[in-house]
Amino acid sequence: MNVLLKKRKKILLISLIITALLPVGLYFFEVFLPDSWCLPAFELARASRGLNQYEIQVEFNPDAKTLTCHQKVEYINRSQDSLSHLYFHLHPNAYRYENKPVFEKNEMEQAYPDGFSPGLLEVDEVVIDGEQAEYVVGGFSENILMLILKGSLEPGDKTVIEMDYRVILPYCLGRFGYGKNMYKAVNWYPIASVYDERGWNLDRYYTIGDPFYSDAANYRVRIQAPAGYTIAATGEIKEKREEGQHLIWEFSAQAVRDFAWLAGNRFQTISKKAGRTTVTSYYFTEDAGKKALEYAVESMAYFNEAFGEYPYPRFNVVESDFFIGGMEYPNLIMLDHDLYKSNNSDYLELVTVHETAHQWWYGLVGSNQITDAWLDEGLTEYSTVLYYGHRYGQEKEEEVYQNIIGKGKYNNLQFFTYSNDIDETIHRPTYEFSSWVIYDLLVYGKGAMLFHSLREKMGDQLFFQGLRLYFQENRFGNAGKTDIIRAFSQVTGQDWQQHFDQWLYDYE
Ligand SMILES: [Zn+2]
């Protein structure tokens, strides 16, 4: 045996030891180290443990405007109660009946340019743990699926639910459906309703606000689409392969609170990194598609620094047929095609930044968007103001802030002319607001003022510390009023309950 061989043996032995210890080390790294030390990939792996797991297979037929789906959900009872029933929301059924529309009267023409077009989800079969299951479809517009369990599901126990269903996409320029340029499969599949301290949350798809409330879950979604279509979705593309006349797209997403996808056969794409995230703009209007990318990258880089790092590998910004303006989904935002017109660049920036901020306040830190809409919308609107200050300076920040709150009664009489509703309470369920205008003035405008006043009182350093703590403690979960007050109180050593209550409730 020569010296060289001895050395080689030693190297081999060391490599073997390292290889053997690596999984142990990684496990230790993932489980025991504090959040702030962990890489986003580990954070996601850790956050994804113990969450519901969705596997969905979709046949997308753009000619027939249908999605034919098979869905398997590993549902875990994460509550302290034993459950005899499980509930899922069937959001597409909110688009089913013309006499129960999801839009205000004056929006119907914009939403349905060719007249009303029904969208729906029809459940064909449900199998639970391998056996045919009993179920009931009910609710305001048949938007709730109730599954009757054979025995009760105890805390910590898991059950496997399989469903076959068919979705019809409406010709509709609201969130769900399709337009002239693309298809919008958003809020499109049976999603588990949230069971929290109030019990099951079975709200309907209200006209005002974003009527969604969900828990983070893991997803694997396989979509069979005709060749020539491009799909932008939540999560990462794991595989894309040809199969005859079709393309098979496989997506995977960890610890996201919804899965959305948009498809079109005219999309061009352009990508750029922001932190660890690859941001991609999907567009069919050339110059503005690049602008949208710039706004998303700039705001994402700033929010990473200001609030805490975005842990997901992908973020997609998609030009859409969506007359309302902008809408947020996990790892995906849709922006109306009108914003991409050359004279709308300022609005494109404002809306892109707002929807990007929702990736933190809605996507990562979730909340009940029906009962606590102020929490994500007020904070998102104010985060948008902060971006302008960071990128363009104090004067621009003040201008944008005044524009946002200037829409409110605080600077003009617009508020009173729209409605007799002069209750200034912003912390109330979305269905108690009399119109989108009032909702916007209070939840977005006065909501932003609440955070502005908080920042003025405690100063920038503590304000941002408070936001980072709120983010750190509540990401991947659902937060409420007490969680945000606790974060600010903790960093300042002072109780902010009264500040919040004064802004949230009408004391006049
Ligand atoms: Zn918003």
Q: Topology of this protein?
A:
Layout: H1 3-32, H2 40-48, E1 53-61, E2 66-76, E3 83-89, H3 108-111, E4 120-128, E5 131-132, E6 134-138, E7 144-153, E8 158-168, E9 177-178, E10 183-185, E11 191-192, E12 195-196, E13 199-200, E14 217-226, E15 230-233, E16 236-243, E17 246-256, E18 261-264, E19 268-274, E20 277-283, H4 286-307, E21 314-320, E22 326-329, E23 332-336, H5 345-357, H6 373-392, H7 394-406, H8 414-418, H9 436-474, H10 481-492, H11 497-504
Parallel strand pairs: 1-14, 20-21, 21-23
Antiparallel strand pairs: 1-2, 2-8, 3-7, 3-11, 4-5, 4-8, 6-7, 9-10, 10-18, 12-13, 14-17, 15-18, 16-17, 19-20, 22-23
Helix pairs in contact: 4-5, 4-6, 5-6, 6-7, 6-9, 7-9, 9-10, 9-11
Bound molecules: zinc ion.
* β-strand amount: 25-35%
Number of helices: 11
Number of strands: 23
Helical amount: 25-40%
Strand order of the largest sheet: 5-4-8-2-1-14-17-16
Biggest sheet descriptor? 8 strands, mixed
Second CATH tier, the architecture of the domain at 52-264: Sandwich
For CATH, the homologous superfamily of the domain at 52-264 is named as tricorn interacting facor f3 domain
Features:
508 residues, alpha+beta, 34% helix, binds zinc ion, 23 strands, Immunoglobulin-like, Neutral Protease, domain 2, eight-stranded mixed beta sheet
